[in-house]
């Protein structure tokens, strides 16, 4: 199972504990993570399904490349970190 | 309920309450909400008392919160969302499809339109809710209008709807201010729109396009509640007024130290009385001579008082944003905030001002309720 972690700075707006999900594309992984809280989706993705401009996702320490389709591969046992990009302040 | 003053800032929503009277007000800071989060719009819906606040989380996007108990508790509600793939039907380029950048205006529908709300956004979409913000829909008639492709950003990368004036007696008549998309008018509740900036001039355009109605930059448009055919506009290139329901606009050539600014308020009962907070024009944007003043006309723009009492007159660099000036229902009290975190209030239409705080975060929006 891959594990998805959300930045602590998001925790004060809504609950988003780490979640264990099946590997796949980044979109499939995030969709599983959002299934427990659909509201969480809107904090990470815009209404077109893209990563928000100042959100960055690391897959085993590497920033994801496809911010539009979210097609980056997330192997099983990966650690996925959803972080605030400092470009956003 | 006590009279309230909502102050939306770079770092949260501050609510003041009047513990005195209309004539002898005593304003006290009563609540702090959403500390650290920028507040881009606030609405008090007089029809049912609901409060709405637009939050700009930056990294996490824009959210809307509502309070149905006078601000004691807040709940996140739906946020306007642009339709999937709206602008990329031909290219299938998801990277170009529009998304909500900011919520910049919130207004209630008519007294006979229970639950109807309007929301103006960046990048230029107007949204409508018929259920108190439980759901929103893009107003396609404006989004698909012939005018919109000519719009562009003013102080932002994309166009923005900052003013929504709903006629108090006929809510089908709606007047919008768009930076930079001029004045947009609907007579049928948003079913159709026409640009209506006749008389305005844009000095940031080549001379032969200065009067192009679709690219004007009204900074804010306000409507007189009791004489709703009267509007005032603080425009990027000066002050204009309309006496014919926003059909045509007359330029006011002189208004104290400067006709540049962002904010404007009109007296709810007297369409000839209006207030502005001037600044050196666009290349500078701070008070003329470092002196904060409010300008007031009582004769429809023929002459202006320059109001200084209680305001800093030495080395002051406060700028007042477009939504950071408001007037109460009585027309006696006004309040305005600044980028420097000052908040001033007057109980005598601006003859004298009292400072409520020198140390707020930069003030974005001020609203009486």
Helix content of chain B: under 10%
Query: What general form of chain B does the structure show?
Result: globular
What is the second-level CATH architecture of chain A?
A: Roll
Order of helices and strands of chain A: EHEEHHEEEE
Assembly level: heterodimer
The number of helical runs of chain A is 3
> Order of SSEs of chain B, N→C?
EEEEEEEEEEEHEEEEEEEEEEEEEEEEE
Number of strands of chain B: 28
CATH class of chain A: Alpha Beta
Low-confidence sequence ranges of chain B: none
Order of strands, main sheet of chain A, comes to 2-1-7-4-5
Keywords:
heterodimer; A: 89 residues; alpha+beta; Ubiquitin-like (UB roll); five-stranded mixed beta sheet; two-stranded antiparallel ribbon; 3 helices; 7 strands; 28% strand; globular; B: 369 residues; mainly beta; four-stranded antiparallel beta sheet; 1 helix; 28 strands; 1% helix
Give a nutshell description of this structure.
The complex is a heterodimer of chains A (89) and B (369). Chain A has 89 residues and is an alpha+beta fold.
